[in-house]
Amino acid sequence: MVKVRTVLGDLSAGELGVTDSHDHLFFRSALLPGQELDDPEAALQEAKDFAAAGGRTIVQWTPYGLGRGAEWLPEIAKSAGVHVVAATGFHRADHYAAEVVAEVRPRLAELFVRELTDGIGDTGVKAGMIKVAGGFHVLDAHAREVLIAAAEAHHATGAPIGIHHELGSGADAVLELLVDDRGVPPTSVILGHLNRFPDHELHLEVAARGAFLAFDGPSRANNATDPHLFECLGALVDAGYAGQLLLGGDTTTAKARGATGEGPGMPYLLTGLRPRLIRRFGEEFAADMFVANPARAFAAPWAG
């Protein structure tokens, strides 16, 4: 049966409710020194604030080796009254020490499948998606190897695959590898960060392939492209692709948290962006983007 795999167990897709489709309660990378999301109390408060704003589900895209806090996620979900989807997967190589890449790369598909079906380490928490990364416009050798492993894990489990696109680029190359070469259904692919490369023609091309398109809400990291968000969404809505659009906050630094940093944080998706989306596109569109579309994007016919 098609379900969404959360840290507290599998749910029917209709139980997700209002969803932040791409965010981070925990995240640690050498590329962001001093900005680690590693405080469980701060993560809990952020989740509670999101719930108080009407949020029901947080999809955390933090993959293997980047401090995803799997041991804390179930208690945060219970205490905040939200569903949390965790991720397996592997990021761009420069997020890791060289020895970690060398040790993990030969067994990526095996690792992904194990974390999706048996759980992450000894936590008992099962991942509910695979998060991997493309390259800048083209796929380097590392990206190709990780994407191929993700395709293998998808075929073994049914799990959806979320893609970090470097500066929003390369979505066409990712679809060529995953869908054309490796047979992953486009409806199991979520193309992330597309607002970081506000090329309407490219967005329309990849939407026509049937994948889900994920956009980030206002963020400190991508403030230069944030003003193009509504233009990008409008072009896709006008072309009939409203049913394939997702929105997330993508909070990757302590400074960007709303609860303990300078914001905007997870709640802003609902307190700031959602009212504007309703004024521009209507209530039905907002319901699709926050409820109906995530329910389809993160549901899978799980094997294992």
Automatic annotation (TrEMBL):
InterPro entries: Metal_Hydrolase, Phosphotriesterase. The modification N6-carboxylysine is found at K131. Zn(2+) 1 binds at H22, H24, K131, D250. Binds 2 divalent metal cations per subunit. Keywords: Hydrolase, Metal-binding. This is Phosphotriesterase. Belongs to the metallo-dependent hydrolases superfamily. Phosphotriesterase family. Zn(2+) 2 binds at K131, H164, H193. It holds the Pfam family PTE. One of its GO terms (molecular function) is zinc ion binding. Its cofactor is a divalent metal cation.
